[in-house]
Amino acid sequence: MKSDQTQIDTHVGARLRDIRRAKGVSKRTLAISAGIKQHQIEQYEIGSTPVPSAVLWRFSAVFDVAPAEFYRGFSKKARRGPYRGDRPATSTPSHVKDTE
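RESULT FIELD:
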């Protein structure tokens, strides 16, 4: 079973590829527009390299989409874990001690 991080990287990469193709943008054009190498686009799209948040932000500007578009369709079940979905966002993680 893949880790949450690997699942997210693979999903974001697949969404990047889908959005890029839907917008009719080549890997080369995207790389130039985002200021990175074409090889990196290929690595992101197959999920072997995580997309840094700053680069994801640039992709969203190039495609004129919200950054959340890259996460659209990611399974809620896959997001469950110690800090995702199984307790309210306002809860303090159990390993953090209250210092007050």
